[in-house]
Amino acid sequence: MRRAELILPIALLAAPPALAQDERHSVSVPAGRLDAAVFTLGRQTGSSIGLRDPAFGAVRVRALKGRHSVDGALAELLRGTGTRARRVAPGTWLIERAPPPPPRPRAAPPQAEEPDAPPAEILVTGSKRDVPLKAYPGGVQIVEGSDIPVSQGGQGSDVIANRVASLASTHLGPGRNKLFIRGIADSSFVGPTQATVGQYWGNSRITYSAPDPDLKLYDIGRVEVLEGPQGTLYGAGSLGGVVRVVPRAPDAWASGGHVWGGGALTEHGAPSWDLGGILNLPIKEGELAARALVFTARDGGYIDDRERGLNDVNSVRTTGGRAALRWNVDGWTVDLGGVGQSIKGRDAQYADGQGDGLTRASTIAQPFENNFWLGELVARKRWGDIELSSAAAYAQQYVSEVFAGASVVNVNQAFPLPPANSQLIGYQQVNRVNMLTTETRLSRRGPRGTGWLIGVSLLENRGQVNRSFGSRRFALTGVRNTVAEATLYGEGTVEPVRGVTVTAGGRLTRSHLTGNSEDADRSYAFREDPGAKAARTETRFLPSAAIAYQPFAGLTLFGRFEQGFRPGGLAVRRDIIQRFQGDRLSTVEAGTRYTADGLSLTASASMTWWTSIQADLIDGFGFPTTANIGDGRVLSLGLAARWKAAPGLDFDASLYLNGSKVTNPSQAVFPLVEGPSDFNRLPNVADASGRLGAAYRTALGGGDTEFSATSYLRYVGKSTLGIGPVLGKTQGDYVDTGLELRLARGRRALTLSATNLLDTRGNRFALGSPLLIRDEKQVTPLRPRTVRLGLEIGF
What we know:
The chain is mostly beta strands. It has 2 domains: 9-97, Phage tail protein beta-alpha-beta fold, CATH 3.55.50.30; 243-357 and 370-794, Maltoporin, Chain A. Helix content is 5%, strand content 54%. The chain contains 6 helices and 44 strands. It has a 22-stranded antiparallel beta barrel. The chain is globular, with a radius of gyration of 27 Å. 50% of the residues are buried.
């Protein structure tokens, strides 16, 4: 995976037209990667520094502090790295490979060679103790923030799914979707069940029983996708794995930022636009700094409503931002941050496949909304290889959805219905989720992936679902679930034989669950299951074990066993409150990683056994409900490759295959889906998915200008909406494409990007309204061919 841009956008920082050659600056550059070091040096000196080859970005350099000229600072940083800095323009330097030294005279006495800087080391920070990638015993995909341009940051989770073949998403609409990893998918709909993917923003969990908030990925440091259950480190809700987004932290040494704006035209649709800005401000140099981001965007619609005579009804407006404060004091690093985002969709995203595939007929609008807020406080301190970390966070999410439904449906005899005087009326579901989490852990990082950690965590999640029907909003039975968890976990890795590491761990969790009905007479709502409202407590222990073997440098073989579970809860079936039980899965995984001479290869295979699967379904009347659907089995195979064919030219390819089956369907549930059928695969996971990508970068005009081009082709195979003949509708089986051209000079960059180059319709998700899915065809097409022109300016 590319670790750096060919020419780092250091030039986006404020740089004067010329710098005095011998002018000295006060600089403080920590030891680490070369790309990070020159980024910091460029900001502190007001210079523009670029890299001829992206591979140089991973070179390790020593720390540098004091007063230096730019030439002197670069010479000191690059000493022993095999690279040199060349002045290519006033105030501009280019780092390139150093020429070989001339042969020494025969008579010259031998001289001690200066040792090279230590090789680059990629760390899996999601391991919670910074395990080197070459020693990590499991499947992991890392997307560097430098690989996510501003033009794509507004796509949110789709940015990750477009790059990681093992990650899949539903496409009901922004802020309404569910993510799945490695084929571990329970259902297509969002209900009271806990998500199968643990989503984290830095150190803080952001979802529990709520949809993916689809946070926009601007100003990101990296994204890590940890595949397979992560029960030991992350506990409940990580059945399929973890998606961890790490935002860029405030920089206490240099001020600066940039702004951007872009406009896009969509074929068959309305225009789109986006604006945003980032500011980094040291408050006390080296100790205290703030960083802020704001953005707003409008995604133009492209679905026409034939019944109402409206065009482009499905536009979406997104506004958000975040702020962070970092304080370095007495060896502690304290981070205080907040994230907020609002998504407002004017109408549903689906069509009925008639005509050009971008229209439908409905008599009402079906708007949706997702408002997300997160506040977090994190404190860390190191004593050599020992680190103490403590974090607390509060997340709040409000999701409102309106679905069209037939007015003649008798959903609840206990409440009157509006008169049947129109074809469609609205069914609204509002989901409110509040989550408080805390975690404290102590860890030690040893050589070659060895070490240990021990931690404790507390979680309280309150989820409330309210439902109503008709234009007069007649209240239907809702449900409220509260889960409180206390957890003790630990993990340790030893190296009994050189090159072999063995890891073992476990997580002990005690969960207390309570639930009750909303907007209904409790005796009526619990008439079929009076004990459902009683509180109950569950205690679970999740063991884990792994082994990694490095027979020689560059090759790692690994095997792993991990478990995960989710506690149960309460759900509504029409107007009746019912319980659903906790589920549990076990996964066995084996894989290999190989890296040498610009080529990296990874392969992994896993088998998962899943018992008492929780799933959000659609009942016989078309209303969402939740139940245990039975047991299941998932087999997955993943392959990925990256090749640095030449300086500045990269290729990547990946393929992921899934096979899933409900092996022991619940007889109590299958009447909801009209009996067992051939549609017994788990939903929304493609049988095959793959990606081909290419990236090219080169310096122009003596090195002060950079041109880059990136492109991809992505295939998403066939999947189904759910289980049974009604929900077993085929979706997927389409190709998506994209291209971006970028020209950067000084503090400015111009981008031209295009998505869905083939103007493919496809079907990303076969659902618009669950109440009408029996009687009409519903498809969710890809956004038609879209071209965006963007401008970025640094300051």
